[in-house]
Structure formats: C-alpha cells, structure tokens
Amino acid sequence: MKLIVIQFFIISLLLTTSLTEISSADSSCGGKCNVRCSKNDRKHEECIKDCNICCGKCNCVPSGTYGNKDECPCYRDIKNSKGGPKCP
C-alpha cells in the first residue's frame, strides 16, 4: 500500500513539474511574440502562431519587431515547407 502511495506521489510531482514548465514557456513566448509581431505586415494571428511555434522549439525570440535573427540562430534557421523562413 505504501508503495502505491509513493508511486502516485512521484507521478503527480512529475506531471505538475512538466505542466509548469510548459505553461511558463508559453507565457514567455507569448509576450515576446506579441512584441515581435506588433508591426508585422502579415496577418497578426498567423505571425503569432508561427512565432510561438519557433519560440517553443528554440526557447528564444529575437528582440525588436524585425531583423536581429542572429540573436537566435535556431529561430533564424527554421524553414517553412517552401524553403523560406518560417519564423517572423
């Protein structure tokens, strides 16, 4: 019985930690992506979606609303299906 309680506690702790990391990554990406997409010519929702995908993979978003992609090479190097840059 004690073993089951201990296993349940460990699993609960792991799930809580994972969910906290995911939600904190989403919130940090969201704020950075809002700034990044604030002056984008593309549809704002599309820019935010692509930026969040790129931020989720790279854990960074270049500063400013345009350029500065050398600050985050991973973000810079992600390509779309046509071979162009995916990240705004």
Key features of this structure:
signal, 88 residues, 3 helices, mainly alpha, gibberellin signaling pathway, single chain, Gibberellin-regulated protein 8-like isoform X2, GASA
Structural summary, described in words:
Helix 1 packs across helix 2. Residues about 15-25 have low confidence and may be disordered. The longest helix is centred in the first third of the chain and has 35 residues, at about 1-35. The chain has helices at about 1-35, 45-60, 75. By secondary structure, it is an all-alpha fold. The chain contains 3 helices and no strands. This is Gibberellin-regulated protein 8-like isoform X2. Belongs to the GASA family. Pfam families: GASA. Keywords: Gibberellin signaling pathway, Signal. It comes from Camelina sativa (False flax).
Outline the secondary-structure elements.
Blueprint: H1 2-36, H2 44-58, H3 73-77
Helix pairs in contact: 1-2
Pfam families: GASA
Organism: Camelina sativa
Keywords: Gibberellin signaling pathway, Signal
